[in-house]
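Entry 12.
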Amino acid sequence: MHKTIAYSLALLVAVLAPFIGYPVFLAKLLCFALFASAFNLLIGYTGLLSFGHAAFFGAAGYVAGNVMKVWGWPVELGMLAGAAAGALIGLLMGALAIRRQGIYFSMITLALAQMVYFGALRAGEFTGGEDGLQGVPRGKLLGMIDLGNDIALYFFVLAVAVLAFMLIVRTVHSPFGQVLKAIKENEARAISLGYDVDRYKLLAFVLSAALTGLAGATNTLVQGFETLTDVHWSMSGLVILMTLVGGMGTLAGPMLGAMLIIALENKLGDLGIALAASTGIEWFNTIGEAVSMVTGLIFIACVLLFRRGIIGEIIARLPTAANKTAS
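Predicted 3D structure (tokens):
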């Protein structure tokens, strides 16, 4: 009941948000919230730490961008093409990576993702190389709704994010999701119960990659371009940070973490200018150049004070508070 109310309030805020803030920036927040939620499906519920999710995010963006710009396909097919690209790359990477466990799994995903990065760097005709893929058109949804309108674009991205989140929730609470949790908690016991653990891991990996691809394709639509930054290993590190800050293994945590980190990256400079104007301290004008330092400090604070992440700590403290109230 409480979750239903919380989700309803969050949806209400999301619906009203574009009439208060900048719709394109808010749409970007939704894209990264979906990215973090897709990553959390793998690490939070299956226990697999991937350092290669930037490959799905960036490659899907390139595919969707070319489908819409070069081939002239409608936006719906562009989104599907991006998700399919993420799923295909995830299938290939997962088939190799799940043969190993722990840090070896993580290192294989990192190595394979770097191969995708250097492939994107060399395939200049498809990716634009160091210049990136520019001028991706927004097009029209269903041939009728002009996504060139920022409000219309925002609500399209919101619909995509909500549907994807509903799929993640359904997956987590399904029998398949329960098996994933069992694998995370005790893989040997899951094997002894007769489950084909490698097959479940691969399915989770591909599903996470497909949703990440959808997030990457949507982000390309919102931004209107795709660059090597999105396929670089640092993007994989960024989504790990988002998930840990928000709360790994929670449904809402990664979304909150993504919004906090992306908001900091984009608005920290504006905050510094405002602080400099109000306090007269010139140093605040340079704080926008220290985004990595600020996010690093936030990560350290979360590790020391909120080891379960922000949402994880809130959930952990709620039963205690309820018990004190009852007593």
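Annotation: The longest strand covers residues 140-141. The chain has 14 helices and two strands.
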